[in-house]
Design brief:
- This protein is mostly helical.
- The chain has one domain.
- The chain is built from three helices and no strands.
- Helix 1 packs antiparallel against helix 2 and helix 2 runs antiparallel to helix 3.
- The longest helix has 29 residues.
- The N and C termini lie far apart (58 Å).
């Protein structure tokens, strides 16, 4: 069982690398568009990736003091997404 923490650190390191690559691809979509909704979805995905990165950091360090930050950012991201979706729905005439 002594190899389990080393394996966990390796897996979490790989997760951080994959999140970084994904964030780079999402940043390209955020900058290139082509529409405002594409940029909005890219920003929402970027916030979600940031949250996952924070959770992985919490898992690596064992520092649970960042859990309220994760909850607050996720609530703000959810409220922002639903607000924009409501405005887009009103703009389409539905």
């Amino acid at each position: 069982m002594s190899s389990l923490p080393a394996l966990l650190d390796t897996v979490l390191g790989v997760v951080l690398v994959v999140l970084g690559l994904s964030a780079a691809l999402v940043a390209v979509r955020l900058l290139r568009g082509p529409s405002g909704l594409d940029r909005l979805v890219a920003l929402d995905v970027l916030v979600a990736e940031f949250l996952v990165g924070l959770v992985v950091y919490i898992a690596l360090t064992g520092d649970s003091s960042l859990v309220p930050v994760v909850v607050a950012i996720s609530l703000v991201g959810f409220l922002g997404s639903t607000t924009v979706a409501r405005f887009v729905r009103r703009g389409t005439g539905r």
